[in-house]
Amino acid sequence: MLVSERDNVVVQGLTGRQGSFWAERMAECGTRIVAGASPGKGGREVGGVPVYDSVAEAARQHRLDVSVLFVPPLAVRKAACDAISAGVRKIVLLTEHVPYQDVMHVLGEARDSDAQVLGPNTAGLVVPGVASVGIMPGFAGNIFRPGSIGVISRSGSLGTLVALNLVSAGYGQSAFIGIGGDPILGTTTLDAVRELDADERTEAVVLVGEIGGSMEEDAADYIATMRKPVVAFIAGRSAPPDRRMGHAGAIVSAGKGSGTSKVDALTSAGAAVVDLPSGIGDALKAAGVLPGVAV
């Protein structure tokens, strides 16, 4: 999932502290926030943005392309389905600890409506110089600047570190896609890799993975077919088996999802795997991708 300067965004939970704070930060990045939705609080304005009781009501007044949710875990199912049924086709689920049954219901509704879901438990996405949707510091020029490197990360904090290292090495980003740290996700690593492979502005892809699950291994077969260079960093490689580290999806069990298996799969696919995020710049240069930012 990517966003453009033409996409209209509705913020669900805009009247809350987090929703209002991050809506202001997103607007600083160029994001077109045209409406908010908070049940029972319709008729208000937050930072000049009109608030409606539902996305369905907002959709009668505005064209809505993207919804970002700042709502509690048990409110996600109803809020997301409100957006999907209102015709919004890009849904960004920031919330952590959403019940798995609710996640599966939302993903089913999205599939039936041909909608894309990012998350849950995602930090969002950034297209530097264009828009930011979520809680990433897209407004910080020392972390995000327009360029040609696409970044995929399960973790928002690790993604921020990698973006910072890219800028420090002289690179800019075409896009950042935070897929989320939960075991059940609307956008997988493979989905995001395909998106960036098809993106004309993206010259190379940086993949920030972590132990647990098989998403990086699942993406390896596709990566082997790519002409664009791929550089990867896998976090948690020293974690003991059967112990969750950080994200709900970061657990190695029955020999699956280990750092070794991910490194082996990605290396066999032709990706350059680095031991530290600080090595990403050198790996890109070795792959023939020269530093530079978009003007």
UniProtKB/TrEMBL annotation:
| Protein's recorded name | CoA-binding protein
Q: Where is each CoA-binding domain found? A: 2-98
- Could you tell me the superkingdom of the organism this chain comes from? Bacteria
* Any one GO BP annotation for this protein: tricarboxylic acid cycle
Q: Which UniProt keywords apply?
A: Ligase, Nucleotide-binding
Positions annotated as active site in the UniProt record: 247
A GO MF annotation of the entry reads:
succinate-CoA ligase (ADP-forming) activity
Q: What is one term from the GO cellular component aspect held by the record?
A: succinate-CoA ligase complex (ADP-forming)
| Family matches, as PROSITE patterns | SUCCINYL_COA_LIG_2 (PS00399)
